[in-house]
């Protein structure tokens, strides 16, 4: 039995008693939003250094070992590397460092590539911090409250949050089921790694069809179960979870706002 | 005893072009009673169950649940609070990503205030022996545990009636026992009315009354003991007689003349022991 999909989403949360863990999910989401936006405003070394320090401090505060960050990063690492190489090869600035007949590498390329790579790395680290230190449910909740002003504009915020929460609930179940179906088909001699692309795509059909049929059945059952439990939309609904904005949250946002201000100053005056 | 649910001349088909799934059903469920509805697959059990809590609304006939006519759409929320339901597939009825969130789901819908909601969630999780699993994700639970979560969610609404639609049919024997033990306790200690739908004759033994449904009609109504002794009715409705009854019958064939009415393991053992003593 292969279990192909272990700990895809839920396995990410690392429980700890830390400053970052205790923060209100809304504060975390806002803070990271500010960080990501302003990280790309100025490319001054001082700004990047500040961003690195900020990330470092957050990392230390969260008290989550680095290996947890690496676990989900293989894919991202490839992207960062590709971006680096792209900039390395495509920039024609500064001194010539290496001159091969088919390619020339300039010092500007190295600098540009490193800057981008560093920014992406900081961004990914911060984003991982959010998912590693916040339970998915709290994240959903935080997003729902933050989107609330949009409800007045007709955005179905409650439904979106419910969808997210149902997705969180069922993604592991669906992955488990996919594993099971793949194993069952392989036991019957199906082969997913041989033949032309077309053959391999065709081999996926016996997986997708049962999966879809099961999912529709599931959706129908779930709708009935929700109705039986009195689900009636957001009208008159109370919440099991309550978010609490504390002083630390304000402080964290304050720090991020100062960072934002500095980036803007460097952008304007250099 | 007052009636908790009464169904009167209910007929139903899903579409005008399809045959009737329920045909002129009339029945009552008394307060505090444990009623078993037996019937082969496709006999209309689940369809009937959906009328009890206004998931389906009668066009022909009438259903009154806890004093409220289910035609009245203003009463649906309150009917669904009074009549809770646990379904067959443990994987398809838990909505939320953690146990406690799921138990709270119905309470959130009912608009129960924060403090009371937390108290009730805590109580129900404890009642069903799920302490320590509050933050667990459903996909990490066993089938029996999932059904207990569903039962906790149903119980949290303080229902007068709990309908179990083949709630144990996908469980292993241990999971089945876990769930049935709790259901028995809710019925005996808390006086919750139980309507248990099943195609397993063994589950009927402990109940107060049995109704057999076949092809949309009620074909038998009586106490479990009489039904289980009645081979003709069982056979006519595709129901296999309980293992213990078969054993007793075979024993009698070999002139080991033990009591004809044994139904449970214990009774059979006692019957055989006392038979030995007579010899
Ligand atoms: N949503 C539906 N739409 C159309 N037909 C249905 C639906 N649900 C059930 N049926 C049909 O109604 C009949 C009774 O089904 P059901 O009440 O689920 O029986 P049981 O629970 O006893 O197995 C079956 O023939 C089934 O095909
Ligand atoms: Mg059914």
TrEMBL record, chain B:
The keyword Cytoplasm does not apply. It is found in: Cell membrane. It is a peripheral membrane protein. The keyword Glycoprotein does not apply. InterPro entries: AAA+_ATPase (IPR003593), ABC_transporter-like_ATP-bd (IPR003439), ABC_transporter-like_CS (IPR017871), ABC_transpr_CbiO/EcfA_su (IPR015856), ECF_ABC_transporter_ATP-bd (IPR050095), EcfA_1 (IPR030947), P-loop_NTPase (IPR027417). GO terms for molecular function: ATP binding; ATP hydrolysis activity; ATPase-coupled transmembrane transporter activity; cobalt ion transmembrane transporter activity. GO terms for cellular component: ATP-binding cassette (ABC) transporter complex. Keywords: ATP-binding, Cell membrane, Membrane, Nucleotide-binding, Translocase, Transport. It holds the Pfam family ABC_tran. Residues 5-240 form the ABC transporter domain. Belongs to the ABC transporter superfamily. This is Energy-coupling factor transporter ATPase.
């Amino acid at each position: 039995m292969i279990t192909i999909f272990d700990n895809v989403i839920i396995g990410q949360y690392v429980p700890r008693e830390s400053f970052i863990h205790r923060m209100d999910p809304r504060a975390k989401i806002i803070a990271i939003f500010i960080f990501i936006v302003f990280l790309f405003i100025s490319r001054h070394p001082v700004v990047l250094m500040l961003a690195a320090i900020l990330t470092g401090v957050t990392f230390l505060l969260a008290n989550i070992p680095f290996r947890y960050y690496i676990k989900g990063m293989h894919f991202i690492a490839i992207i960062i590397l590709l971006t680096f190489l792209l900039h390395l090869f495509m920039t024609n600035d500064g001194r010539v460092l290496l001159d091969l007949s088919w390619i020339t590498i300039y010092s500007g390329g190295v600098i540009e590539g490193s800057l981008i790579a560093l920014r992406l790395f900081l961004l990914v680290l911060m984003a991982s911090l959010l998912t590693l230190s916040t339970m998915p449910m709290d994240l959903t909740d935080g997003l729902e409250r933050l989107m609330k002003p949009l409800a007045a504009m007709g955005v179905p915020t409650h439904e979106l949050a419910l969808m997210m929460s149902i997705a969180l609930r069922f993604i592991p179940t669906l992955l488990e089921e996919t594993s099971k179906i793949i194993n069952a088909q392989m036991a019957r001699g199906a082969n997913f790694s041989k033949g032309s692309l077309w053959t391999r795509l065709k081999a996926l059909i016996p997986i997708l069809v049962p999966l879809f049929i099961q999912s529709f059945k599931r959706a129908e059952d779930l709708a009935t179960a929700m109705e039986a439990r009195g689900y009636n939309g957001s009208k008159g609904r109370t919440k099991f979870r309550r978010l609490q904005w504390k002083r630390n949250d304000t402080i964290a946002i304050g720090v991020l706002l100062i960072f934002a201000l500095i980036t803007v100053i460097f952008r304007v005056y250099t | 005893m007052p009636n908790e649910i009464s169904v009167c001349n209910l007929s139903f088909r899903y579409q005008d072009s399809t045959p009737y799934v329920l045909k002129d059903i009339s029945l009552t469920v008394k307060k505090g009673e444990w009623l078993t509805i037996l019937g082969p697959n496709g006999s209309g059990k689940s369809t009937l169950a959906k009328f009890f809590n206004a998931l389906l609304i009668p066009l022909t006939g009438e259903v009154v649940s806890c004093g409220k006519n289910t035609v009245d759409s203003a009463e649906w929320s309150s009917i669904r609070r009074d009549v809770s339901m646990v379904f067959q597939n443990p994987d398809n009825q838990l909505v939320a990503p953690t146990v406690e969130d799921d138990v709270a789901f119905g309470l959130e819908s009912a608009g129960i205030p924060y403090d009371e909601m937390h108290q009730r969630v805590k109580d129900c999780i404890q009642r069903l022996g799920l302490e320590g699993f509050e933050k667990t994700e459903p996909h990490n639970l066993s089938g029996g545990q999932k059904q207990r979560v569903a039962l906790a969610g149903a119980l949290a609404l303080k229902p007068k009636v709990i309908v179990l639609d083949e709630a144990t049919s996908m469980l292993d024997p241990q999971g089945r026992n876990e769930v049935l033990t709790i259901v028995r306790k809710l019925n005996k200690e808390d006086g919750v009315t139980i309507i248990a739908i099943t195609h397993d004759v063994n589950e009927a033994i402990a109940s107060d009354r049995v109704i057999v449904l076949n092809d949309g009609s009620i074909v038998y109504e009586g106490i479990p003991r009489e039904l289980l002794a009645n081979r003709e009715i069982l056979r006519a409705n595709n129901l296999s007689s309980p293992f213990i009854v078969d054993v007793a019958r075979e024993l009698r064939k070999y002139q080991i003349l033990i009591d004809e009415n044994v139904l449970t393991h214990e009774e059979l053992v006692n019957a055989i022991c006392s038979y030995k003593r007579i010899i």
